[in-house]
């Protein structure tokens, strides 16, 4: 998803996705659960947050592009 965001020249969304994914992973690693649970959750949820932000940016950009072409 990062490459698609960059291809659409959405550099802020790219950075926001990566920063959010990293922050989520770090925060999940700081929870008081067993190490294995923290590591697995961090590795699963962190990237999903980044993917969600990138996907939302791509959808928003393609909708605005489609609307501009329709008029």
Distance between the termini: 28 Å
Helix content: over 70%
State the shape: elongated
Report the structural category. mainly alpha
Q: Average pLDDT value?
A: 94
Largest sheet: none
Number of helices: 3
Strand content: under 5%
Q: Please tally the β strands and state the result.
A: 0
Write a concise keyword list for the protein shown above:
71 residues; mainly alpha; 0% strand
Notes on the structure:
The protein is an all-alpha fold. Helix content is 86%, strand content 0%. It has three helices and no strands. The chain has helices at residues 2-7, 11-29, 35-70. The protein is elongated.
Give a summary of the structure in a few sentences:
The protein is mostly helical and 71 residues long. 86% of the residues lie in helices and 0% in strands. It has helices spanning 2-7, 11-29, 35-70.
Present the secondary structure layout.
Elements: H1 2-7, H2 11-29, H3 35-70
Helix pairs in contact: 2-3
């Amino acid at each position: 998803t990062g490459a698609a965001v960059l291809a659409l020249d959405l550099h802020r969304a790219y950075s926001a996705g990566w920063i959010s994914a990293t922050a989520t992973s770090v925060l999940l690693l700081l929870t008081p659960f067993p190490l294995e649970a923290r590591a697995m959750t961090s590795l699963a949820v962190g990237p999903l947050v980044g993917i969600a932000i990138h996907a939302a940016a791509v959808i928003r950009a393609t909708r605005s592009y489609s609307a501009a072409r329709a008029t």
